[in-house]
Amino acid sequence: MSEGDKPHQLKLVFERQVYHYLSSAIAIIILYFLTYFAPVTVGGFLSISTIVWYWTSAIIPIIHQLFVGFFWRLELHCKTLTRRFGYNGFILFGVIFLVLFVGRFISVICLAFANGNTLGIDLWITRLIAIILIIPTVYLIYR
Predict the structure, then answer these.
(1) Whole-angstrom Cα distance, residue 140 to residue 143?
(2) What is the pLDDT of residue 106?
(3) What is the tens place of the pLDDT at every residue in 6-18?
(4) Which helix (H) or strand (E) holds 118?
(5) Rounded Cα gap, residues 79 and 126, in angstroms
(6) Dihedral-angle region of residue 46 (phi above 0 means left; psi in -120 to 50 means alpha; beta otherwise)
(7) What is the pLDDT of residues 78-114, one digit of tens each?
(8) What is the phi/psi pair of residue 45, to 5°?
């Protein structure tokens, strides 16, 4: 990549990414206002309050999405990782990706343990909702 191409390539990294940044900001605002509902803050797990698990399970996916959106596009348009680290750049990206990906599930599971049975919904209805939600979840993971 020549010096003259750098501004154009960097512009491509951020092309149409404003929607991701905006949706992340909106999600954080909505999540903040949801903390005012008592069931969200009740409980704890591993001596850590539910509110900490709540924010952890909310922030990790946002960090993951922004990480992938930024660094993968940086590699795609500017070859930043491979120029700096060679093939190991993909390994580094993969390790960070995997840690954040697994962290998403672990944080949600910990939140579920910390905040379990606080909505006052019948167990069978809860299970039905879980089964209904697992279908699109498995599909999204598969895709």
Answers:
(1) 5
(2) 92
(3) 666 666 766 677 7
(4) none
(5) 47
(6) left
(7) 778 888 888 888 888 889 999 999 999 899 889 888 8
(8) -150, 135
Report the mean per-residue pLDDT for the chain: 82
Give the chain's domain count: 1
Hey, what amino acid is at 38? A
What does residue 68 show for φ and ψ, rounded to 5 degrees? -65, -45
Cα–Cα separations (whole angstroms), residue 47 to 43, 102, 118, 142, 143: 10, 21, 17, 34, 36
Q: Which residues contact 72 (CB under 8 A, 6 or more apart)?
A: 93
Cβ-contact 83, 37 below 8 angstroms: no
Q: Which amino acid is at 83?
A: R
What residues make up the domain containing 32? 3-142
Residue 96 is encoded by which pair of tokens?
């960070």
Which among 122, 109, 121 is positioned nearest to 39, based on CA atoms?
Answer: 121
Phi and psi at residue 116, to the nearest 5°: -60, 140
- The distance from CA 141 to its chain's CA centroid, rounded to whole angstroms, is 13
